[in-house]
Amino acid sequence: MDDFSYVDKNTVQRLIDRYGVMPDDINCKIVRNNLVVQATIFFIFVCSLCYLFLYFAKIVKGSPLIIIFLLLIFCAVYFIYDCIRTRKQAKLRFKGELWLLKQLLEKEDIQRFYKDSGKSISQEFLCQGNVKDWKWSFDFTSCIRQIVIDSLIEKLNLNNCRAIELGCAGGYFLKTLISYGNIAYGIDLDRNCLQRIAKNKNLYLCQADVEKIPFGSNSFDAALFLEVLEHLPSPYSVIVEVGRILKPGGILVLTTPNLNCIPASYFLNPLKLFVQFLATWSNELCLPKPLINSWRKQRFFHTAFSRNEIKNLLKNDFKVKKWTTYGMGGGLVGMLLRLSPSVRKLFKQLNDMEQKSGQGKDYAQLRKKLIHIESKCGKWLGRMNIFLQKIPLIRLMGTNHIIVLEKK
Fold it and tell me: Between 3.30.70.100, 3.40.50.150, 1.25.40.10, 3.20.20.140, what CATH number should domain 141-258+305-407 receive?
């Protein structure tokens, strides 16, 4: 796996030269997997295995075994082909995103946080060309994170201490910290977000960058660093800065996207599932890192971290107290909900209004329906994730790392 501990022009140019990236790589077409085909072949594979088991158990007799073996060979060949194609597509995506990142760095316009989320987070966009039409989809991650982090704060007994949230955005977790009797501090680059939450008592806010936190050394007993690290071009230096403001023995709760997560579609291919499990412990098997994310037809810098990468970032300043993931089951629930005609109709209406820039009363009502579905399913998924975090291996499959650390 390539080193992205510091993203600068030299790092990106070195990778561009290594992989022979060309401007045309931006236009590479990423073919999406056909879930119907995958599900059909997986069904044939399972049925064939079940039939073989019944045959050798002498429950069924007189069957054409040659046909069953041919079906199994066909499924195995497809699984190998699908695994190779997925990795090839990931490399093509990586090369295109490298070139986009090169353009961003040449403009010297890379942003570390959303500076103004109220204006479509326009400050972090890097390139408006070659972007597919943005479409609505379910996002259960925020709801799951709220349930999981609330439960974690309660278990950690973060009471009556001095705590800070780095990149506090809407301030949801600051309110949670205050509810346990803590003196809470929040920093963010978005002034509008800070103004919206400034009325809470026992809460102190500051507009600042996490690379230069305006507090003295050993100032805090605990810190929340939630879904911020993936936006930063120099994650290691930020981890050092966070360690500086924490007292010895202070607690850091860190969340960030998991490069080793297992999408729901991987369960339809045993080979891809097995390789992705192994990638948790082997960097050589990891897929190339994502470098760019999209939001409302825009692209911005956004990455993910493998388990080994984060270990290397943290080893000098922190020791791990707990390591698990969250976000498990969200993709599967989203796919199942999309089978509903009413949900498909809701998405179609929202997408049509987005294309026409419609932001009227009807649009607001449709968004309210979508948020209600996400909230209801997200709360259930959050409780399910808390249970799944107790199961070995399964707890490493989620879309996002959640790590509890203690300063050395």
Answer: 3.40.50.150
